[in-house]
């Protein structure tokens, strides 16, 4: 069946990818056009590479994650549940057994799932969502480990589970949040986190950053990724792919990265093309007086 509807089957697919020495992209979406484009791109890649059998594909979205609430944006109604119903309808339709994309196995991933706030979503959609990044990085590392460990015990059979190693905030002894911090994840922290929580995959801060449009502004710490790989194997998920150069992207599999989140390029490139087309045809859209007024305002 094109949609992988349980964690064990999704885990089998990801385990196979680990053994092949490749990295599996995880494409995030927040609208129907991006969802359809992801399927079309996967199909074209499969045909161009002459890949036989089923091609694995991960499609993801965030819910109440503060930095980007993709499900809320997916529907014009600005509602999480409406967004989930909409994206589920789209993926179910596109990936139907008798459809043109039936040779693609789809793993649906809930990214940056927030404890408590997003619980209803994965509990009510176990027959659709088969992978979760359970994000406790807003808590202290000790609390993060405890919460994720408990989540793994309860839901290991239902989902492939990712954990985010590290802390977004500094903490005092009393566990009170202080300022935001941005530091490279310690290799030893990753190793202990992976072993203690029992997660399938780990997200580490390797110097990259979400939603970067200028890759030179951030430095990918390949050396840290490789040290983590040497400790736990190819179990790393990379966020912030928009920070990478082409060469860095090609080297990810050998660095221990088994899964790569991709979203910015799916939104930025079409927006740039659209902006260019609007500028070229601006005289067909606005009156001359309106164009001159806008130019003068700049």
Automatic annotation (TrEMBL):
Q: What InterPro entries does UniProt report for this protein, alphabetically?
A: Aldolase_TIM, Class_II_FBP_aldolase, FBA_II
Which PANTHER family does the entry mention?
D-TAGATOSE-1,6-BISPHOSPHATE ALDOLASE (PTHR30304), D-TAGATOSE-1,6-BISPHOSPHATE ALDOLASE SUBUNIT GATY-RELATED (PTHR30304:SF0)
The Gene Ontology biological process terms listed for this entry are:
carbohydrate metabolic process
Name the UniProt record assigns to this protein: Class II fructose-bisphosphate aldolase
Which species is this record about? marine sediment metagenome
Q: Name one GO molecular function term.
A: aldehyde-lyase activity
């Amino acid at each position: 069946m094109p949609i992988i509807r349980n964690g064990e089957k999704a885990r089998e697919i990801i385990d196979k990818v680990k053994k092949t020495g490749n990295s599996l992209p995880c494409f995030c979406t927040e609208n129907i056009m991006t969802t359809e484009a992801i399927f079309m791109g996967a199909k074209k890649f499969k045909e161009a590479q002459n890949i036989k059998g089923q091609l694995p594909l991960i499609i993801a979205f965030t819910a109440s994650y503060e930095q980007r609430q993709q499900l809320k944006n997916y529907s014009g109604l600005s509602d999480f549940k409406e967004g989930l119903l909409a994206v589920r309808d789209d993926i179910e339709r596109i990936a139907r057994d008798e459809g043109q994309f039936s040779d693609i196995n789809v793993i649906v991933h809930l990214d940056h799932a927030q404890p408590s706030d997003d619980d209803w979503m994965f509990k009510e959609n176990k027959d659709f969502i088969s992978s979760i990044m359970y994000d406790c990085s807003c808590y202290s590392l000790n609390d993060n480990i405890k919460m994720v460990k408990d989540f793994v015990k309860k839901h290991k059979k239902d989902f492939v589970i990712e954990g985010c190693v590290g802390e977004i905030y500094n903490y005092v002894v009393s566990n009170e949040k202080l300022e935001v911090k941005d530091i490279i994840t310690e290799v030893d922290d990753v190793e202990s986190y992976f072993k203690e929580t029992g997660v399938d995959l780990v997200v580490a801060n390797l110097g990259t950053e979400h939603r970067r449009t200028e890759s030179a502004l951030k430095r990918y710490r390949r050396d840290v990724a490789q040290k983590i790989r040497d400790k736990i194997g190819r179990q790393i998920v990379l966020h912030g792919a928009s920070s990478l150069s082409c060469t860095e992207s090609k080297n990810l599999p050998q660095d221990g990265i088994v899964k790569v989140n991709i979203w910015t390029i799916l939104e930025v490139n079409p927006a740039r093309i659209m902006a260019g087309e609007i500028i070229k045809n601006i005289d067909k859209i606005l009156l001359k007086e309106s164009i001159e007024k806008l130019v003068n305002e700049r």
